[in-house]
């Protein structure tokens, strides 16, 4: 996956500051998932130098964001990517999820399951959910998670 970043030079002019190939990284505890960790920001402020900030969190704090390209291998069961969270989970985030290729299932705690196919978008607003790919083709999903206030979830702490 290629990532091109624009930002500003010392004169305030827009420039391309980065053009790199990102490698997919395995997700701890999930041999059947990998992600391209495309971007993250805790307190965006512009203009900036266009460098991806190093963050020590997976789920962003309030106002922060994370952009991931997730690869779900075929025949995966409903489970969360973060170790120790259990199958169904809820986060203090608003997630915009776009299925690029294949299909996956978003399962909710009321027993409902929603099949998402290539071209579909899901807006996940802090609901209890789990992901699976019970199909025979890899599913590729783009997701932007934005940290939000959630009365039922403690927001992540930032070190």
Main attributes of the structure:
0% helix; 159 residues; mainly beta; four-stranded antiparallel sheet; single chain
Write the layout of secondary structure elements.
Layout: E1 2-8, E2 14-21, E3 25-27, E4 30-41, E5 65-72, E6 76-79, E7 93-101, E8 103-108, E9 113-117, E10 121-125, E11 129-133, E12 139-147
Antiparallel strand pairs: 1-2, 3-4, 4-5, 5-12, 6-11, 7-10, 7-12, 8-9, 8-11
Low-confidence stretches: 80-86
General shape: globular
Helical coverage, percent range: under 10%
Largest sheet: number of strands, sense, barrel closure: 6 strands, antiparallel
Overall structural class, as computed from helix and strand content, comes to mainly beta
Number of strands: 12
Q: In DSSP terms, counting alpha (H) and pi (I) runs of 4 or more, how many helices?
A: 0
- Please state the CA-atom Rg, rounded to the nearest Å: 17 Å
Portion of residues in beta strands equals over 45%
Overall pLDDT: 86
Distance between the termini: 29 Å
Q: Give, in order, the helices and strands.
A: EEEEEEEEEEEE
Q: Which strand order spans the largest sheet, edge to edge or round the barrel?
A: 3-4-5-12-7-10
Tell me what the structure shows.
With 159 residues, this protein is mainly β. The chain has strands at 2-8, 14-21, 25-27, 30-41, 65-72, 76-79, 93-101, 103-108, 113-117, 121-125, 129-133, 139-147. The protein is globular and about 55 Å long. The relative contact order is 0.22. Mean pLDDT is 86; it is low at 80-86.
């Amino acid at each position: 996956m290629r990532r091109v970043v624009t930002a500003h030079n010392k004169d305030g002019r827009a420039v391309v500051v980065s053009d790199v190939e990102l490698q997919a990284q395995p997700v701890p505890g999930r041999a059947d998932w990998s992600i391209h960790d495309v971007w993250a920001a805790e307190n965006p402020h512009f203009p900036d130098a266009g460098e991806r900030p190093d963050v020590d969190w997976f789920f962003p704090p309030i106002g922060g964001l994370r952009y991931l390209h997730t690869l779900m291998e075929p025949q995966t069961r409903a489970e969360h990517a973060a170790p120790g969270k259990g199958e169904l989970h809820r986060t203090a985030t608003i997630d915009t999820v776009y299925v690029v290729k294949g299909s996956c299932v978003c399962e909710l705690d009321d027993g409902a399951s929603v099949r998402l196919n290539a071209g579909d978008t899901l807006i996940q607003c802090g609901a209890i959910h789990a992901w699976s790919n019970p199909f025979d083709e890899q599913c590729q999903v783009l997701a932007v998670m934005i940290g939000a206030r959630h009365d039922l979830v403690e927001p992540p702490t930032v070190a």
